[in-house]
Amino acid sequence: MMKRLFLILFLPLFLACSNFGDGKTIKTAMLVDIDSLNPYKFVGSSTEEVMFNVYEGLVKQTPDGEVKPAIAKSYNISSDGLTYTFDIRDNVYFHNNTKLTPSDVVFSLKKMKELELQPSFKNIKEIKLEGNKVILQLEKKDASLIYYLITPIVDEQTYNTIDKKAIGTGPYYVDTYKREQKLVFKAFDKYWGEKPNVKTVKISIMPNSDTVFMKYLSGELNFIYTVDSKRLDEIKDKTVIKTPRNMLFILGINNKKYDKNIREALNIAVNRDEINKSVFKGLGKLLDKDRTGDTSTLKGMKFELKVPTNNRMYTDTAQVVKQQLAKAGADVNIVPIEWASWLQDVYTNRNYELTLIGFTGKLDKDAVYRRYTSTYKKDFLNFNDSEYDNLVKEAKVTLDINKRNEMYNKAWNILLNESASVFILDPTNLVVCDKNIKGFTPYTISFIDFSKLVIE
Q1: Which tens digits make up the pLDDT trace of 111-127?
Q2: What Pfam families does this protein map onto (predicted)?
Q3: What are the start and end residues of each CATH 3.10.105.10 domain in the chain?
């Protein structure tokens, strides 16, 4: 199950789909605004989903869930796993037309470590520059580090203004950004790699999925990449691309507020299959089987369920969960909350009882499993299990992939046995676009690769 969820290998799809459009520009929409123009302030996967077209790291993600050289034209990892050597390309330009230097790479890596963007960066003992080579010396082995090095490299000279003007090295640069309104990308002529076929990408920021869908039907948009499965009947005459989303969609439980008995009862009361059929048209892949047992501990209990309003997946599921818990005698008060407020109240302050959220797929399993470790500063679920912590910690420094997978499988079983959350399903992603748009390539992480699209 977990191998399928986090390390799915599937071939790129080069597909066409149909609707209306002007054939000149990709016109799409996102439900929430980007977190920031500064890549070191990205929080939500929806930001990375589009902004990885603007920024690049030493390596970049591939459709099959691996990484390949990007700003580094090659790299080598020593046999003991402690030394990483990156040979930096000499033909990379920033979007302000200044040439990237190895010094920019060193600056960026030091900034990543200083800001503790990823736990792996704290493990970097030394960063050395030898000609065009950047060498990282680690304190201890870290099987996850290479995957976190998709974190963008920035221009040292313009870093202090990057919150206001994005300066990356990717195939697109930010031409226009109006907060809560729109984001416009233009193809970068000096891009070091394969030049994008589509020269302009216009992204409207629309906080309602129904509005996005209606804009698509009217022809104002020609490419939408997260379609509500309940709208499938309205586009029977269109071609829909279905791809794995690689997401953990969960009913999050604040483990500090509810003990294992309550969490187990919640897992029994929630019917995952019913949610899949009523909200996702049966297209999701269940993460856990539906359970049977005693739910009497829930009788008379009152729960507050904070639900992000940016996606019907959350709001529709909340109604089903409310009905299911009512059958067990519990009362659920649904509290709709805007995404920015959810990030503050739930993700940062951990001020909640129950919530619905989707953890998007990551390149390395550590990025998902660490969310439930007690030492992780963003463990808003407040799960605490020493055996689980030790397994995840040991897996991170284990270079043998088979042994790592064994550890993660044991960790997954702990999450299930301890009812750390109600693990519901992995939704199927639905993409719809103009019939003359081809080249959509699904990735195992949240990334819409506009550079691969072709408008015929």
Answers
A1: 999 999 998 999 999 99
A2: SBP_bac_5
A3: 247-426
